[in-house]
Amino acid sequence: MLGNVAIFAGLLFLPTRNLSWWRAWVFLGVVFVGAVASTVSVRRASRALLEERFKSPVQAGQPLARPNRFVSSAGLILFVAGWWVMSLALRANPFAAPAVKHQADRRQVAIDSGLYSLVRHPMYAGAIMLFVGMPLWLESYAATILAGIPAGLLVLRIHIEERFLRRELPGYDLYARRVRYRLIPRLW
Questions:
Q1: Under DSSP, is residue 135 helix (H, G, I), strand (E, B) or coil?
Q2: Which residues lie closer than 8 Å to 117 by C-beta, 6 or more apart?
Q3: Where do the domains of the chain lie?
Q4: pLDDT tens column, 56-69
Q5: Residue 153: which region, alpha, beta or left (left: phi > 0; alpha: psi -120 to 50)?
Q6: I need a surface site. Which of 101, 116, 140, 152 has the fewest CB within 10 A?
Q7: Which of 84, 69, 60, 50 is nearest to 137 (CA)?
Q8: For 101-119, what is each residue's pLDDT tens digit?
């Protein structure tokens, strides 16, 4: 129960470094009250179920489907390749800030060299390779499926970021017409 609140607090406050975000505090309060209420309710209905629910999700005797050695090794290669792609993207783009914004004070321009001549978001392409490669190497199909969540969030971010850059960054629209693909050459 407190673990859920702590996880949400970390996800909300660590990236923003803003403890005065009142909406986050209200959200944490709702999570805490909801967790307490549901725990009390389930305990009244079935104490044994609640005890079972608090056990580790990974237990002895549990059937696990694991990638074979070839798939797992391909995961490590994918992870390393993703890291390399992200590093090359960061080297090529001095404006690759974590926040989507127009860096006019740094005279931001659309970068069209290196991997940015192939796709408009090579750093995100590399990140998706990391997200998928890591759980494959660690032999978890379940985590590989869950990697679709951050990958989907990056696709959503691309849409938001491109709308912003087309509106705010001079030359981005022309760059987007020249480099047609966002993540994968000849596909998307």
A1: helix
A2: 179
A3: 2-53, 69-178
A4: 776 677 666 878 88
A5: alpha
A6: 152
A7: 69
A8: 777 777 878 888 888 889 9
